[in-house]
Amino acid sequence: MLRSIVRRISQRMDDFPPGRVPLLLLLLAATSGSVVVVRSVLPHEPGLRVWTFVHLHSEEFRQRLADHPDADTIQVQNLGTAMFDRLALALMTQTELPDLVEVEQSVVGRFLRGPVQHIPFVDLTERIRQEGWDRRCVAARFARYTVAGRIFGVPHDLHPMVLVYRPDALASLGYRPEDLTTWSDWVRAAQAFYRPGPLGTPHWRRGLALSTVEGYTFLSLLWQRGGDVFDAEGNVIIDSELAVDTLEFYVSLFRLDPPAAGPALSSMLEDFSALARGQFLAILAADWMLGTMQLDARSILEARVQCRPLPVWEPGGRRTSTVGGTAMFIPKGCADVDRAWELLKYLYFDRQSLVRRFQAHSIVPALTDVFDDPIFHEEVGFFQGQRVGELLIELAREVPPVNGSPYAPEAYKFLDAVFPDVIAGRRSPRTALDEVARRLREVIARDQRAGLQPVDG
Fold first, then answer.
1. How far is CA 72 from CA 48, 65, 98, 357, in A?
2. What CATH code is carried by the domain that includes residue 225?
3. pLDDT digit string (tens) for 411-451?
4. How many domains does the chain have?
5. Of the candidates 77, 67, 90, 85, the residue with the CA atom closest to the CA atom of residue 18
6. Diameter of the chain by CA atoms?
7. Run of H or E residues at 184
């Protein structure tokens, strides 16, 4: 009996939109009969506080602010992933709020619940449109941070995806990359590359490295194909025929005879090492992975790999996808929204900062104004002299829109819960996606009954 009660409480905690930690703190205060006293941010404090969860971003912001006339009044804090629970508590209690905050796309939905007028971030739609940022940036990227047609976040990045492959291994099979334009073409080459043997031995070879435990690569392929988890109106479409067919294709890559794919290894660096040993023919990589590869795997991969667009699903189709992403938001408790907005633009749209970011980490910005900088057109020795920047900015305008939803965190959680069973053959793709869709619709229906469903505000 007690175990059942605990389990039900735990499930309700998971359903609490801001998360477990803020709920536990509120419950502690309520059940103890105590009063939690928190130091509020004074409404007339002259300084601005910027929260992020990424060390790279905090360092970049500090460098950028070195030239800011009000640098002494701006505080940048890197709080790591604990920031999300701290932000949720700050938004609920309206205490210790930042003036600007970065949120990762996979968790931002927890902060976008309820009617639009109750979303705790400033609606930036008119500012973005009046100043033309939706035209100067890749417009599709705003979709992740849009609810009921209103834009609440400014994107930090695009993260177009490419295929990183071993051109020598491909040539040894008698293939040229320009002849392998569709996924069907690449499947044939990947099958020809295959050699049997258990992972961890020196003899195995697999054409593609794909995740068998998380659904992010499947979703990237679905987005490339024009599908999504939610449509633009927020309806659940993860159980569409297109999604089922895409997951069936994904699973088939492991089951073909011979297989065209094998499990990604336990870390990105292990995948890079397998690529260097010639045990993977190719891996799918977002722009930031190219930067990580050059930093962490230079000694084993330099001048041994090249990049190319993703194979298309059909002739003339989209040649890239995306994975990951971050945006910046202004909490409604900000005392000076105009000043925060100007600081957001200063941090996110400075040309030289974006150029340095690409040079150091290969991250393609959403702002297309910078694409004419020479850094995007240089030959890169690591990739055998390819002009990788030109490829990435060419693909940038093909990055698919990914519809934002307050229920994206649940969608990722539900998908990851069934994904290993699908790969192992214990569930069919259709049954698994039907279950994900059913659970999402149940959560949405519950919120509708509670008056928490987003509506046009």
1. 10, 9, 16, 24
2. 3.40.190.10
3. 999 999 999 999 999 999 999 999 999 999 999 999 988 87
4. 2
5. 85
6. 75
7. helix 183-193
Distance, in Å, from the CA atom of 408 to the CA atom of 404, rounded to the nearest integer, reads 7
* Distance between CA atoms of residues 86 and 17, nearest Å: 13
* Domain match, 215 and 314 both: yes
Number of Cα atoms under 13 Å in the Cβ half of residue 269: 5
Residue 410: both structure tokens together: 């649940």
Alpha carbon distance 419, 429 (integer Å): 9
Report how far Cα 337 is from the mean position of its chain's Cα atoms: 27
**Residue 380 falls within a domain, yes or no?**
no
Cα–Cα distance for residue pair 4/259, rounded to 1 Å: 44
Contacts of 304 (CB under 8 A, 6+ apart): 166, 168, 276, 384
In a domain, 22, yes or no: no
Do 60 and 352 touch, CB atoms closer than 8 A?
Answer: no
Nearest-Å Rg of the Cα atoms of the chain is 23
How would you classify residue 226: left for phi > 0, otherwise alpha for psi between -120 and 50, otherwise beta? left
Q: For 180-201, how does the pLDDT look when each residue is reduced to its tens digit (9 = 90+)?
A: 999 999 999 999 999 998 877 7
**Is 31 domain-assigned?**
no
Q: What angle do CA 53, 56, 58 make, to 5 degrees?
A: 60
* 135: helix, strand or coil: helix
> CA-CA distance, 49 to 38, in Å (whole number)?
17
**CB-CB contact of 325 with 155 (8 Å):** yes
* Residue in the block written with tokens 């700050």: 90
DSSP-derived 3-state class of residue 53: coil
Could you give the C-alpha distances from 258 to 16, 39, 167, 199, 254, in angstroms and in order? Answer: 46, 63, 21, 15, 9
pTM of the model: 0.89
Say how many C-beta atoms besides its own lie within 10 A of residue 38's C-beta: 12
Task: Kindly state whether residues 112 and 251 are assigned to the same domain.
Answer: no
Residue 91 domain-assigned?
yes
Share of the chain above pLDDT 70, in %: 89
- Phi, psi of 395, rounded to the nearest 5 degrees: -80, -20
Q: Does 316 share its domain with 438?
A: yes
Residue, of 67 and 319, whose pLDDT is higher: 319
Range of the domain at 246: 161-322+405-449
Q: How far apart are CA 250 and CA 350, in angstroms?
A: 40
| Whether residues 213 and 295 fall in one domain | yes
197-245 pLDDT per residue, tens: 887 777 899 999 999 999 999 999 999 999 999 999 999 999 999 999 9
Predicted local distance difference test score (pLDDT) of residue 1: 44
At 21, is the pLDDT very low, low, confident or very high (cuts 50, 70, 90)?
A: very low
